[in-house]
Specification:
The complex is a heterodimer.
Chain A: H1 11-26, E1 32-33, H2 47-56, E2 62-67, H3 74-86, E3 90-91, E4 100-104, E5 117-121, H4 135-143, H5 148-161, E6 172-174, E7 178-180, E8 198-203, E9 208-212, E10 218-220, E11 247-251, E12 258-262, H6 265-273, H7 281-284
Parallel strand pairs in A: 2-3, 2-4, 4-5, 5-8
Antiparallel strand pairs in A: 1-9, 6-7, 6-10, 8-9, 11-12
Helix pairs in contact in A: 1-2
Chain B: H1 3-10, H2 17-33, E1 39-40, H3 52-61, E2 68-70, H4 77-86, E3 99-103, H5 104-107, E4 126-130, E5 139-142, E6 150-152, H6 158-165, E7 172-177, E8 180-184, E9 189-192
Classes of the chains: A alpha/beta, B alpha/beta.
Chain lengths: 285, 194
């Protein structure tokens, strides 16, 4: 077959990661420390997600990897090839066919099922880190449920900008206990986090794993008079015409022309294949 | 040690460890993520006295870094030898154990196991409880991983309710019978079936 152990990591490393995943699932939203390994890719390229995926994969799985919603970007292609080579698993670009989906900064538009696992790549797992740099202090704050500082930050957003300006990595409270960083997904995706699939989060450089079991309560932090709003660009997709998907803005030329396209490439492709078309759909096809 | 116990000590591991452990872990993860739901797990052929499910869990999760406590009802020379050969896990006292294995009554008292610290609630024991079956649900569960409610057979209710009160501290449970397992994390609320 090939010269790698199944899914690259050695068995003892996988056991260590698996134990961390189980404790993460038992305490949703709590960051479990783990002995992150060096992976054959740089930090920031999903080393945490890759390690979690490697520990969770079985040979029967079908893997999908997305980067900002896209299946065809460097990061997604590289990780997909990595697991094709080291685990010999099937890969796909279609959300419905995948049993394990590793993602960087998006949740697929298609609703996930109970048979799927979503693995997030996380850069900074600690939602309080930019407010309090000391790990000893943030540990204590989580232990004491001392989240006032986060509310002050959101309040300062309102006092400066008139609204909560945090657009991605919008902090959530899990099952009424732990404040958690959902990874830098747009806040548009936050409401989707109460889903049927298992959600696992891996931060390689920061050496943390956390998890959200299916149907767990995930509530974005907000205020009664400034409730959470899941925002997106006020356009339809220029290729497939979707009005309900998260959009990327693409500059087309120097004359100020631009287009909005679904960030979820599989969603956009499947809609176009089903005959939907947007403003620029004909030319692009 | 007689020749026969020796051979049973060396036999019974995963035939293809990376793949068997991956499948066994998937069952364990699905169980822990969906409390009360029964999963199939196999791969290990244990020495007499413990179930296939419990043995497969031990092979999947234990290694020289994890202390294992064997309750009096399962603590045999054959099992200690089997565990040492296949996992290298040290046998430890209940107070220091990462994993504990045994029947419910033999594992008691529950409060001797580690429940974690407020800063590190993950530093807690996982109990693998051998049960006769999953067929007579007497408890209704709710909480993370459960859509509305789930039903499950538990050895008793009060101990699990007390454990849930400690949240986010507490111990987590796997229940094993034959080649099946189910789990009850500390996050689940336990009520009596009406």
């Amino acid at each position: 077959m090939n010269d790698y152990n199944f899914a690259y990591l050695d068995e003892q490393t996988k056991r260590m990661i698996r134990r961390a995943i189980l404790k993460g699932l038992a305490v949703p939203g709590y960051q479990v420390p783990f002995a992150s390994r060096e992976m054959p890719m740089p930090y920031g390229w999903g080393t945490g997600g890759v390690q979690v995926s490697a520990a969770a994969l079985t040979p029967d799985d079908t893997l999908k990897v997305i980067d900002q919603g896209a299946d065809d970007t460097t990061n997604a292609v590289s990780i997909r090839k990595f697991f094709e080579k080291t685990a010999g698993v099937e890969t796909t670009e279609e959300t419905e066919k995948a049993s394990v989906i590793q993602t960087r900064h998006r949740i697929p538009e298609a609703e996930l099922t109970e048979d799927q696992i979503l693995v997030y790549q996380v850069p900074i797992p600690e939602p309080l880190r930019f407010l309090e740099p000391r790990e000893t202090e943030t540990r204590k704050m989580h232990a004491l449920q001392e989240y006032g500082l986060m509310h002050v930050k959101l309040y300062e957003d309102i006092s400066q900008h008139g609204a909560i300006a945090t657009a991605y990595a919008y902090p959530v409270k899990v099952e009424g206990r732990y404040v958690m960083d959902p990874s830098p997904i747009p806040k548009f995706d936050n409401p989707k986090m109460e889903m049927a699939a298992i959600q696992l989060f891996g931060a390689g450089r920061e050496q943390r794993i956390y998890a959200v079991p299916p149907y767990t309560q995930v509530v974005p932090l907000d205020f009664e008079d400034y409730p959470f709003e899941a925002g997106k660009a006020d356009h339809a997709c220029d290729l497939c015409g979707a009005e309900d998907s998260y959009l990327d803005e693409v500059i087309l030329d120097d004359a100020g022309n631009r287009m909005f396209v679904c960030s979820d490439t599989d969603y956009c492709r499947s809609r176009r294949e089903a005959g939907h078309s947007g403003r620029l759909g004909e030319e692009a096809a | 040690m007689s020749l026969q116990t020796q051979s049973s000590v060396y036999a019974g591991g995963f035939s293809n460890p990376p793949v068997a452990a991956a499948h066994a872990f998937r069952a364990a993860m699905n169980a822990m993520a969906r409390p009360g739901q029964v999963q199939d797990i196999s791969g290990a052929t244990p020495p007499e006295g413990i179930s296939v499910a419990a043995a497969s869990l031990l092979l999947t999760l234990c290694d020289p870094e994890t202390g294992v406590y064997l309750a009096p009802d399962v603590n045999s020379e054959a099992l200690r030898g089997w565990l040492a050969f296949h996992t290298g896990a040290p046998i430890s006292a209940a107070e220091q154990a990462d994993f504990a294995l045994g029947g419910w009554d033999a594992l008691m008292p529950l409060d001797c196991f580690r429940t974690g610290t407020p800063e590190y609630p993950d530093r807690s024991a996982t109990l693998i409880v051998e049960v006769p079956s999953f067929e007579a649900p007497n408890a209704v569960l709710s909480g993370p991983g459960i859509k509305d409610t789930a039903r499950m057979q538990l050895p008793e209710l009060a101990a699990f309710q007390n454990n849930a009160v400690l949240y986010p501290l507490g111990v987590d449970f796997f229940f094993t019978a034959g080649s099946q397992l189910a789990a009850l994390p500390r996050s689940s609320q336990v009520a009596a079936e009406v």
